[in-house]
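>> received
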Amino acid sequence: MADTTGEFEDPTLAEQVEEYDRLFGIVGDGVVGAAGGLVGTALMTGVLFVASQLGAFSFESFASLAAPLGLADTARPVLVGYLIFLANGMVPWPLLFAALMEYLPGERPPVSGLFLGGALWTGFVLGFYTGYTGLTLAVYLVFTFVAHLVYGFGVGLVFEYLSNRPDSLV
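>> returned
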């Protein structure tokens, strides 16, 4: 296997170990990202719940996510749409954050996450707009923006917490 200097005698074995380490890192980032996305989406849902109580957000708008998949006719299209929303919050956005974290402004991941959340808000605010006007529109804009900042902060906080542990996955 390895000689006394720690080098592998067989170069193909060294390549296999390097490939395993890279694969383990990718899987580790995925697990951390999913955990961060779950935390961020839970925090975001809380802010959106407050907005819905103020009449500035409707959870019914999540049903629009089920329609392109042909799931709008299910018994609970809002639940299906929310599960799609949750899956997006746990998989692609945290992985994007993992890939871009070092390029985003901010010296700590939670601060970088704020910028990611702000960027994601630009699509959400248009995609889930359902005709709000006047003060309700202002409340919709503010609460959805805050919800996205909270999401990004939560994702970044989980990344920071898990990356600073001695047995880090990141």
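>> The chain has a mean pLDDT of 86.
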